[in-house]
Amino acid sequence: MARRRKLNDRAARHDTAYRRAKQENFAARAIYKLEEIDKRFRVIKPRASVLDLGCWPGSWMQYAATRVGPEGHVFGIDLRPVELALPGWVAHEVADVNDWSPEGAIAAAGRRFDVVLSDMAPQTTGDRASDQWRSEALLLRALELARAALRPGGHFVGKVFQAGRFPELLGELRASFQEAKAYQAKHTRAGSSEQYLIGRGLRINIAAEQARDRASAHDRADESD
C-alpha cells in the first residue's frame, strides 16, 4: 500500500514547484499559483495598485511588482516582516489584518487599490475542522478589507481551505463582485482542500456603501471631539 504523504513530509513540501522557485529566486512556490490565476482571470494589469494581505514570505509581491511595473504600486501586510530585496514601488508593514485599516495605505498610494490579494492561512493545529474554520474566518476578513480598499470595478483573489461555510463565502463573493468563481490552482498539493475565490469587478453599490460607512464613522468621530 502506498504511504500517504503528509504536509510535513520533506518530499511533499520540496516538490518540483518548490525547487523551481528556489532556482528562479522566488520566495515561495505560491508564486506559480498567482501566475496561473492571473493568466486565467487577468486580475493584475500594468500600472495597477495592489494590496497583498498576508504577504510573507513575499512571492506574491514579487510577482505583482513585475506585473504592475514602476508606474504601479504594491503594498503588503503580514504578521512577519518580509526580508526580500524588492523594487521601490513595493512597500510592506508588519500588522495584524484583524486590527488593520486600509485607509493609511490608500492615502499613501494616493488612490484606492485596483486589486486585493490574500494568500492568508492560519497556523495549522492538526485539527482539520478547526484549521478550516479559521481559514474561512480569514477569508471573510480579507473580503471585508477588499470591499473597503478597492475602487469600484476592482478585483479580488483570496485563498481558503474549503469546508462547511464554503457556500456562504461564495454568496458573499457574488454579492460583492460582478463575476465570482472558485478555482483550484494546478500547483495545489494533492489532497489539499485549498481553493481560491476570484472576484472580478467590485460592484459600484458596494463601494458606495463602504464610502458612506466611512463618512458616517468620520462624522461620529468629529462629534465626539
- CATH level-four homologous superfamily name: Vaccinia Virus protein VP39
Which strand-content bin applies to the residues?
A: 15-25%
* Side-by-side strand order of the widest sheet: 3-2-1-4-5-7-6
SS-based class: alpha/beta
Global shape: globular
- Taking pLDDT < 50 over at least 5 consecutive residues as the criterion, the unreliable ranges are 1-11
Q: Architecture, according to CATH? A: 3-Layer(aba) Sandwich
Précis, in short:
The chain has helices spanning 10-13, 16-23, 31-41, 59-68, 103-109, 128-149, 166-176, 204-224, and strands at residues 49-53, 73-78, 90-94, 113-118, 150-161, 177-183, 194-202. With 225 residues, it is an alpha/beta fold.
Task: Describe the secondary-structure layout.
Layout: H1 10-13, H2 16-23, H3 31-41, E1 49-53, H4 59-68, E2 73-78, E3 90-94, H5 103-109, E4 113-118, H6 128-149, E5 150-161, H7 166-176, E6 177-183, E7 194-202, H8 204-224
Parallel strand pairs: 1-2, 1-4, 2-3, 4-5
Antiparallel strand pairs: 5-7, 6-7
Helix pairs in contact: 6-7
How would you explain this protein's 3D organization?
The chain has a seven-stranded mixed beta sheet, sandwiched between helices. Helix 6 (128-149) runs parallel beside helix 7 (166-176). It has a single domain, classed as Rossmann fold (3-Layer(aba) Sandwich), CATH 3.40.50. The longest helix has 22 residues, at 128-149. The protein is built from eight helices and seven strands; from the N terminus they run αααβαββαβαβαββα. Residues 1-11 have low confidence and may be disordered. The termini are far apart. The chain has 225 residues and is an alpha/beta fold. The chain is globular, with a radius of gyration of 18 Å. It is 42% helix and 22% strand.
